[in-house]
Amino acid sequence: MRSFENQPDTVSLRRLCILLALKDSYIRAIGQPIGFDYARLEFDVANGRASGDGKPLTGWEFRVFTANLGVARSTQLVHEQYECVCAFYRGPNAETKFVWHQTPRELESWVQFINIDQMIKVIPKLTA
C-alpha cells in the first residue's frame, strides 16, 4: 500500500475508503464471514493488480463509484458521499480490471438508486 503522508486529508481519506470498499466487496463476493482478515488482501489500483495471500486475484472486475445521497438526519436532509465497489468474477481467463464510473450518466448504465416511495410501489411485483 502506498503512503498517504503527503496527501491532503480528504484525498487520503477517499483513497482509504476505496481500498476498504475493494476489500469488503471481494470478501462479500467470495462469501467469507465477518472477521475475514483484510491484511490478506492487497490492491494496487494504479497498476491494475489485486492479490490475496500473495496470489493474483485473476478474473475479477471491480466497479468503483461514488454514491452521493441525501440522508435524513433528524429533521435535516444531509448530503453524504460513499465510496462503493461491486466485485464480479468474470472467469479464470479474464484479467483483473478496475472500472471507474466518474459521472452519474456512466453509473446509470448499470446501477440505479431509488427512494422509499419507489420501493413501496415495486414490492407487490417482487412478491407476486
Description:
This protein is of the alpha+beta class. It has helices spanning 9-29, 104-108, 116-127, and strands spanning 41-44, 49-52, 55-56, 60-73, 76-89, 97-101. The protein has a 3-stranded antiparallel beta sheet, with helices on one face. The protein has a 3-stranded mixed beta sheet with strand order 5-4-6. It is globular and about 45 Å long. The termini are far apart. The mean pLDDT is 87.
Unreliable runs, pLDDT <50, ≥5 residues?
none
Amount of beta strand: 25-35%
Q: In what order do the strands lie side by side in the largest sheet? A: 1-2-3
As a percent range, the share of helical residues equals 25-40%
What does the average pLDDT come to? 87
Main β-sheet: number of strands, strand sense, barrel status? 3 strands, antiparallel
The general outline is: globular
For the secondary structure, the number of strands is 6
Kindly, what is the distance between the CA atoms of the first and last residues, rounded to a whole number of angstroms?
A: 48 Å
Number of H- or I-type helical stretches: 3
Order of helices and strands: HEEEEEEHH
Radius of gyration: 17 Å
